[in-house]
Structures are given as structure tokens and as C-alpha cells.
Design goal:
This protein has 161 residues and is of the alpha/beta class. It has one domain: Aldolase class I (TIM Barrel, Alpha-Beta Barrel). The protein contains six helices and six strands. The strands form two sheets. A four-stranded parallel sheet has the order 3-4-5-6, with no helix packed on it. It has a two-stranded antiparallel ribbon with strand order 1-2. A hairpin with a 5-residue loop joins strand 1 and strand 2. Helix 4 crosses helix 6. It is globular and about 50 Å long.
Length: 161
């Protein structure tokens, strides 16, 4: 979901961050869903239900930011953005217009379209609790260190031809 926290001006008045001409970065939570059920995360609770931002809201957020000269737009919040079906296409306007970044768990097998999208990012942070495969499995449950490493290896290969 997309939340804006009101900010306080030095004079004590409130302003909307999207109304500021000084906005440098924006973090957008397009989904609160995740493919993992980490032992320490709220997503692992039986009552947790993740939701995706609607296409209409994604468009509305993009239009609200389109004219800004942002230094970075972070395309994730609490959830795993790569779980949104067709995320590279749905978020293409952001990827085309802004320097973008994302934190991902890199735990699912990425398609060529997803890897191409990542290649255009200004930054990609990989959320990884440990490099010990057995401990990682206990903490994150449905994750494979081999899959994360495969995604890394695939994403850094140079195109041929």
C-alpha cells in the first residue's frame, strides 16, 4: 500500500510530501504479500493476508510523481514486489522514468523479463539473513540459497552477441 507520512516544516506546519519541491526519494509498497514466511516476520502469522496495490492506484501514484526530479524511487515496502504478477510491465513507467531501487529476497526463479528489469535499476539490495544454507532454511523456511545464488549469477552474466 502507498502511505505518505505528513512531515513537519521548521515553522511547525504540516505538509504533504508530494507537495514538496524538495522530495528526493520515495518508497512505495506495491504489495504486502511475500513468497517467504520468515520466522521473525508478521507475514508468517496465520492471520496475515497480503494485498497488492491496484493497477489504478499504481497509475495514480506514478502520475503524482511523474514531474518530480527524484534521486531514487524504491519499489518495495514490507512485501516482496517480485510476487506481483507481471511486475516488470506494471512498474515499467517507474523504471523508465526514474532511477529505481528495490530490496528483494531473490528467492524465486526470475524470468528473463524480471532480470532485464533488474538490470535497469540504480540499486538492488538482496535481503539475506545468513549464508549458512541450513540456518537460512530454518529462518526463512521456503528459501534455497542455491536459488538466490543462481539469480545472482544469471543477473550478472553479460549478454552474448
Amino acid at each position: 500500500m502507498f502511505f505518505l507520512v505528513p512531515k513537519l516544516n521548521p515553522d511547525g506546519t504540516w505538509f504533504d510530501a508530494l507537495e514538496s519541491h524538495r522530495t528526493q526519494s520515495v518508497n512505495i509498497e506495491f504489495t504486502s504479500d511475500c513468497n517467504l514466511r520468515c520466522s521473525y516476520c508478521a507475514v508468517s502469522l496465520p492471520s496475515y493476508a497480503g494485498t497488492d496495490m491496484s493497477s489504478e492506484t499504481i497509475d495514480l501514484v506514478y502520475r503524482g510523481l511523474a514531474d518530480r526530479q527524484l534521486e531514487i524511487v524504491t519499489l518495495n515496502g514490507h512485501g516482496e514486489t517480485t510476487m506481483i504478477p507481471g511486475w516488470p510491465q506494471k512498474l515499467k513507467p517507474f523504471i523508465d522514468r526514474f532511477p529505481v531501487g528495490m530490496t528483494s529476497n531473490f528467492a524465486k526463479r526470475f524470468s528473463p523479463d524480471e532480470l532485464d528489469a533488474f538490470a535497469r535499476f540504480k540499486s538492488v539490495n538482496i535481503s539475506l539473513d545468513t549464508s549458512d544454507p541450513a540456518l537460512l532454511k530454518r529462518i526463512r523456511r521456503s528459501v534455497s540459497l542455491d536459488q538466490i545464488l543462481e539469480n545472482l549469477a544469471t543477473s550478472v552474466r553479460q549478454p552474448t552477441g
